[in-house]
């Protein structure tokens, strides 16, 4: 799966950079749509589906990469030699990293705006 995600990202990046006429299509995968200049906010529409699908592929590829190329070798260095146990370690380590990172990011984003986390 990591190979598919990398190929997708390379194809998207090269298409966006090398073919200026294709940017109106690739732009939907890289940016939010439906910007309202009067209010300075974004609204919701069907073109947002492209951005969501792009991030699904991105996070799936990131998960596979971290599990296969970082956590599994780390487990083997730590003395876990059975494949099933290495996979289990990699899954649990990914969950730890994912939730630790995004919980922290959520706190950084919420606190400066006066959002109370204790409601």
Give an overview of the whole structure.
This protein is mainly alpha-helical. The protein has one domain. It has helices spanning about 1-20, 25-30, 50-75, 85-110, and strands at about 35, 40. The protein has a two-stranded antiparallel sheet with strand order 1-2. Strand 1 and strand 2 (about 40) form a beta hairpin. The longest helix is centred in the middle third of the chain and has 30 residues, at about 50-75. The chain starts with a helix and ends in a 9-residue tail after the last helix. About 5% of the residues are buried. The mean pLDDT is about 85.
Order of helices and strands: HHEEHH
Supply the number of structural domains.
1
Our count of helices gives 4
Strand order of the largest sheet: 1-2
Mean pLDDT: 85
**Beta fraction:** under 5%
Largest sheet: 2 strands, antiparallel
Rounded Rg: 19 Å
Shape: flat
Unreliable runs: none
Work out the number of β strands: 2
The level of helicity is: 55-70%
Distance between the termini: 40 Å
Q: What structural category do the secondary elements indicate?
A: mainly alpha
Give the gist of this structure.
With 119 residues, the chain is mainly alpha-helical. The protein has four helices and two strands.
Descriptive labels:
119 residues, mainly alpha
Secondary-structure topology with pairs:
Layout: H1 2-18, H2 23-30, E1 35-36, E2 41-42, H3 48-77, H4 83-110
Antiparallel strand pairs: 1-2
Helix pairs in contact: 1-3, 3-4
